[in-house]
Design goal:
alpha/beta; binds 2'-O-acetyl adenosine-5-diphosphoribose; 32% helix; 6-stranded parallel β-sheet; Rossmann fold; 10 helices; 248 residues; 11 strands
Length: 248
């Protein structure tokens, strides 16, 4: 891993950031890695849960077949997340909320750490582990951090499921469309801690570039997106992103 210091940030990027008004950030699992959340690709993640492949226990099919098993898996994941704290990458991004006149944060993460760091109006394209959703009327219900999770919908009494996008499911209605609209209008798009492999979220940087935005990747490794970017900052998001605020 390269050493990261203020010389890791190109002067041109600092200049563009200083005059930018419309900024969009797309984050993935890597932004939470330094908080202790395992990423999906690149080690540390268990591929099976109680003998069941990860993509089966987290699937639309399992919601139909055995909702209790799905909840057991998500209860386990919430337990792991409960005591984790946002890191300096989440905090640096939260500062941007008020730094730019039009700022949008789109995350593929379901862990809620951006909101814990103070980010507002986060576009959660893959849902949230801290919400349940009615299987019938689709009403969303917050899951308390330290209390029991709801078993049924308060409006219609039907069963609830995790409000997370599972394998075989579409994104929440409107979320991608909103993100695509905002990214088409931004001046700088940061792509932080994502392998940029999972569509449609991975198409957002393409839309940014096609509409003339400056594209900047922040990742501990190169990704399929790297060659397409104007700036590639290689290193930990928790070390690099605060450097972008060092002149504030
Ligand atoms: P991945 O696990 O695919 O990629 C994580 C990325 O973060 C990799 O490119 C790593 O190099 C990078 N990374 C790791 N630690 C980092 C650090 N400290 N700083 C910066 N970068 C770091 O995760 P996602 O791209 O988020 O979807 O995965 C996308 C989607 O795939 C997830 O949202 C999930 C999964 O299927 C659903 O659950 C619907």
């Amino acid at each position: 891993m390269e050493t990261v210091d203020s010389s890791s940030i190109p002067a041109k990027l600092r200049e563009r950031l200083a005059s930018a008004q419309k900024v969009l950030v797309l984050t993935g699992a890597g932004v939470s890695a330094e908080s202790g959340v395992p990423t999906f690709r690149g080690g540390g993640n268990s591929a099976v849960w109680k003998g069941m492949p990860f993509d089966l226990i987290s699937s639309a099919e399992m919601v139909e077949r055995d909702l209790n098993a799905v909840w057991e898996w998500f209860d386990y994941r919430r337990d792991l997340l409960r005591d984790l704290k946002p890191n300096s990458a989440h905090e640096a991004i939260a500062i941007w909320q008020d730094r730019f006149s039009e700022f949008t944060l789109v995350t593929q993460n379901v862990d809620g750490l951006h909101q814990q760091a103070g980010s507002r109006d986060v576009v959660e394209v893959h849902g949230s582990i801290w919400r349940a959703r009615c299987v019938a009327c689709q009403e969303a219900i917050e899951i308390p951090r330290n209390g029991p999770r709801p078993n049924e919908c308060q409006s219609c009494g039907e069963r609830v499921r995790p409000d997370v996008v599972l394998f075989g499911e579409l994104l929440p209605p409107g979320a991608f469309e909103y993100a695509a609209h905002m990214v088409a209008n931004c001046e700088i798009c940061f792509v932080v801690g994502t392998s940029a492999l999972v569509y449609p979220a991975a198409s957002l940087p393409e839309i940014a570039k096609a509409n003339g935005a400056l594209l900047c990747e922040v990742n501990s490794e190169r990704t399929p997106l790297s060659n397409f970017c104007d700036f590639v900052l290689t290193g930990k998001a928790g070390e690099l992103l605060p450097l972008l605020n060092s002149d504030l």
